[in-house]
Each structure stands twice: as structure tokens, then as C-alpha cells.
Amino acid sequence: MAFYLSGCNFISYETKPIANQQVIEKITAKDPEDPRFKEFLKIQGFNEDSLPIKEWGLNELMLCALFFNPRIEIAKKEWDVAKIQEMIAPIKAPSSVGFESGRQTTGVKENSRDAFGLSLTTLFETADKAKIREERARNQSLIKRLELRKLAWDIKTDLTLNYLRYHQLLLNLQIIRSEIKLQNEILNMLKKRKSLGLSSSIDSNFNQIELNKNIQKLNEEQYQLNETKSKLASILGISAEKLNTMRIANINMDQSIEIFSKTLDDETKQRDVINLGLFNRIDLRIALAKYAVSESQLKLNVANQYPDIRFSPAYIFDYGSSKWLLGVTSLIPTVEKNKNLVEEAKKLRDIESLQVEKIQTSIINELAKLRDNYINAKDMVRKDTEDLSAANALENSIESKFNQGEIDRIELTQQKLITMQYKRRFYTNKITLMKIGFDFEALLQEPLNTNKNNEK
Fold first, then answer.
1. β-strand partners of 330
2. Tens of pLDDT along 213-245?
3. Do residues 431 and 164 make contact, with C-beta atoms less than 8 angstroms apart?
4. How far is 250 from 252, CA to CA, in rounded Å?
5. Which domains does the chain have, with CATH numbers?
6. Pairing between strand 309-318 and 321-330?
7. Which residues contact 21 (CB under 8 A, 6 or more apart)?
């Protein structure tokens, strides 16, 4: 009978083996030109005229990661599982149906020699256990939803870091190539001087060593650029070949720094920044949700002290006699076990409470550290600006003297090399300053401004 009652709800098992070749094809098939991705971009507010994307800035790359990154897909599936658990949680244990029959071979002929019985057993849960389980499942589902949001921020943070790293390496390569060109010019002039007996081999040997160092540095930067591009492709969830077909937009450092400075340089907004960190961070809300789960678990352990009751109404036809029965059964909980379970749940709740305090303390300390780093980075950029300006002025002065025939070309080229080295340091520290602004956003898990188009 039980099979008959539930048979219409049976779900057949379906195999879904993992085929390596299909997985590889799925990865290589991920393409920013995919029509489904195009529809996704339209939902995000992109107009038909702006598609396909010509230049990929940080925002466009982030949308690409949200669509293609498999970690996002996994997190969504985990949230789906949690939502199913949320629906399952309040469902009580299944009832049972029993049927018994028998026949006796001896007895009075006037009486029936057949006997059969029909019983139904159902569970009555005490102390609102179903509601408590539902409450716990809701908070567990909330945790998965928040973890999905946190994952998106983690991906954005990782993407931003590598995006800035990518541009820094491109800039370094450009400057180092210019330095190598100037060093080659200097070395050739020194060799010519040496051949004329105007200088010793010490000068040319020293410059050759410096040139070799820069060539090695160029190779290292190129290797790091390839590594960064590989990381970017992994973050985006696409192949490196597809990334190479995408034109990465240049970043406007001055605009980004100016936008960040509007908040970070305004003393009246510092309390708002701290409050954002203390009350807005997603991992803090995850910790609060975990505390709520531990609270629900404590409630459930307390409720489990009260035994559930099983009612078993039954009808028996006993050799000609009809009988109605009502059975009541209950498992008697082990007092000592329940006591320890309640105590365990209290300790776990205390741990989750301390986790909230730990996160908030860490946020305050990290904000203070970032604040100091921001001030130091601003000072370094200001000093680099002055040094670069002085180097440019000196280069112009030397070039003027060269044009007047007062000095030779080697001195002018050496000064150009020095200016180029100042320029490399200036841009390195400027990118560091800009990165600190993004570090603030990563820590707060909230943009410091409403205008997110910081690149062009």
C-alpha cells in the first residue's frame, strides 16, 4: 500500500558521468562573443550599440568573470542546495502504514478463522522542533547567499589586483625598453671614446653590466606579464587564447586617485568609512548568520530534551471480532547526553560570537594600516613628482647646453637615462597609491564612490 500511495512520486535515477573531453570543450568554448553573454550584458544595462565590447575595462572584465568563472557557478549550486534544505527542514518524519494478516487452522467453525490488521503510525513533534529546524535552514541558506556575494567581491579584488599588475608591467616594459635604448647609445659612445683613447674600459664595462641587468629585468617583467595574463584568464573563467583576443582598456590613474581622495582625504568621512567596515562587510554578516545558526542549534538541542510522541491508531479484525486500538510511544531521551549537547551548542554559540568580535577588531586594525599606507604613498608620489620635475628641468638645461655645444651627447643621454629611471619610480608609486584605494574598497566590500567607471 505504501508503494501504491507514493509510487506516483518516484523519481528515476539518471547517471551524469564526467567526461574529460566535454569539460575541455566547455572551457575552450567560453567566449566573450557568446550570445548568452551578450544577453547577460544587456540585463546589466549595456545598450545594443555598445556590444560587442571593444575595450575591456575593469567593470566589463568583472561582468565577464561573473558570467564565466566556474567558482560563481559552484557557489550558486551550493545556494540552490541550501534553499532545497530550507524546504525540507520543516517536513516531519514520514508516517508509516502497516498491514498484517493471518489464519488459524483450528477453532469454532462459526467464527472466522481469518485475522488482519491495519495500522498507521504518525509522529507528533514537541517543542516546535520543526520551526526551529526551519529557522536554522533559513540562516544556513542566508550564509550560502552571502558567501556567493563575498565570492563575487573576492573575485573582484583578485581581478583588480591583477588588472593593476598587468598595467604596471606594461608600463615597466615600456620604460625599461627606453632605458635599454639609452644605455645602448651610451655604451656605443663609450666604446667609440675608448677606441680613440679618450676613456678607459672601466666605464664601458660598468655600463655593459648595467645594460645586462636591465635586459635581465626586461625578461623578468615579460615573464611576470605572461603570468599575470594567465591569472587574469583564470579569474575570468576563459582560456588564455580568448583573453589575447580582448583589448584591455588603459586605466586612468589620475582619475582613480582623485576619486579615492575625495573620500580618503575628507576627515569628515572617516567615521563613515569605519562604519562601512564594521557594519557592511559581507563576511561580518556571514559571521552573524553563523551565530544565528548556532543559536538555532542550541534551541534544537534544548527542544530535544522533550520526547516526541508517535501515535499509532489501528484496526484489527481478530477472528470475527473487530477491534480499534490507539498506541502511544515515545523515546525517552538520555538526560546526560542531552545535557552535554546543550552545553556543546552553548560553546559553539560563544565561538561564533567571538568570531564577530575578531572580524570587527581585524577590520579596525586593517583600516588603520591602510590609512597609514595611504598617507605614506601620497607622500612618496608627491616627492616623486618633485624629483621627476627636477630631473626634467635638469634634462632640459643639459639639452640646452648640448645645443649650444657646451657639453657632448653622452652627458645628455646619461641625464635622459636618469630621468627615465625617475619616471619608472614615479609610476610605480603612483600605481601603488591607486592600489591602496582599491584595497580600501576590498576591505570595506563597498565602492568608495558611485562612479565605477574609473578606466577609459
1. 309
2. 989 999 999 999 999 999 999 999 988 888 888
3. yes
4. 7
5. 28-94+128-306+339-444 (1.20.1600.10)
6. antiparallel
7. none
